[in-house]
Amino acid sequence: QVQLVESGGGLVQAGGSLRLSCVASGRTFSSLSMGWFRQAPGKEREFVAGISESGGRLYYEDFVKGRFTISRDNAKNTGYLQMNSLKPEDTAVYYCAARARSRYYTFSYFQNPSTYDYWGRGTQVTVSS
Predict the structure, then answer these.
(1) What is the pLDDT of residues 64-101, one digit of tens each?
(2) What is the DSSP track for 47-86?
(3) φ, ψ for residue 119 (rounded to 5)?
(4) Of 100, 96, 47, 48, whose CA–CA distance to 69 is shortest?
(5) Sign of the dihedral through C-alpha 119, 106, 28, 5
(6) Distance separating alpha carbons of residues 127 and 2, to the nearest angstrom
(7) How far apart are alpha carbons 90 and 47 in whole angstroms?
(8) In the chain, what are the helix, strand and coil shares in percent, each to the nearest 5?
(9) Residue 46, Cβ neighbours under 10 Å: how many?
(10) How far apart are CA 27 and CA 38, in angstroms?
């Protein structure tokens, strides 16, 4: 069983930055592909970014392109989401998700939450205007 623990959320002013971390345990981290999702109050959970097992393939939702960067450090069993130029509409609970060995390497596959096996509990990000 894989456990995922997110951290790094908080309150930041518009235009500011945060870096989220997701520490994984219970399985060889380099065998897991990862995604970041978010859910704002009253809205459905939505995809933010995804990264393949090696970090060689990256996927971003349009609304974060150029502002957010997903990365991973397999030696530290940790994935990251660097968020810059934050906007009030980025306010949400951010979730880390993982699965063992992707079957496909396409945006739609990484975007689909049902393809992930493991989820963290989330970390709150609040962006004030």
Answers:
(1) 999 999 999 999 999 999 999 999 999 999 999 999 87
(2) EEEEE-SSS--EEE-GGGTTTEEEEEEGGGTEEEEEE-S-
(3) -135, 145
(4) 48
(5) negative
(6) 30
(7) 12
(8) 15, 50, 35
(9) 14
(10) 24
